[in-house]
């Protein structure tokens, strides 16, 4: 059991965010490399009936993001980057597709 919030309620610095979101669009992946590590990052516009936010996804999380898909963010956090909010799911959180049979959400683009 977890409480599901809305995009309109998000504030920078918020942690423990649980949301059900529809993927609106996805940007091309950016790959960052250092000595032995490689990191893929994708930014996607996701939203619910209260608004949209940019979701920053990494590595295996990227596979979950498909335009039109409904995803569940559990224990996410909200950061501020270039004066815009970014929703992130770190190692303590979870990003997955919505279970079959669950009610999907409607996205209102503002």
Topology:
Layout: E1 15-26, E2 30-33, E3 38-48, E4 51-58, E5 70-81, E6 84-88, E7 94-97
Parallel strand pairs: 4-6
Antiparallel strand pairs: 1-3, 1-5, 2-3, 3-4, 5-6, 5-7
Please, how many helices?
0
Low-confidence stretches: none
Q: Could you tell me the strand content as a percent range?
A: over 45%
Oligomeric status of the shown chains? single chain
How would you describe this protein?
The chain is mainly beta and 110 residues long. It contains no helices and 7 strands. The protein has a 5-stranded mixed beta barrel. The chain is globular. The model has no long low-confidence stretch (mean pLDDT 85).
Short summary:
This protein has 110 residues and is mostly beta strands. Helix content is 0%, strand content 51%.
Keywords summarizing the entry:
110 residues; mainly beta; 5-stranded mixed beta barrel; 7 strands
């Amino acid at each position: 059991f977890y409480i599901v919030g809305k995009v309109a309620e998000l504030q920078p610095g918020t942690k423990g965010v649980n949301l059900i979101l529809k993927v609106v669009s996805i940007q091309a992946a950016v790959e960052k490399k250092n000595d032995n590590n490689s990191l893929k990052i994708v930014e996607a516009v996701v939203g619910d009936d209260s608004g949209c936010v940019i979701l920053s996804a990494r590595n295996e999380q990227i596979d979950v993001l498909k335009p039109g898909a409904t995803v569940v963010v559990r224990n996410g956090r909200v950061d501020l980057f270039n004066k815009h909010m970014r929703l992130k799911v770190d190692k303590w959180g979870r990003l997955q597709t919505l279970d079959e049979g669950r009610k999907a959400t409607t996205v209102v683009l503002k």
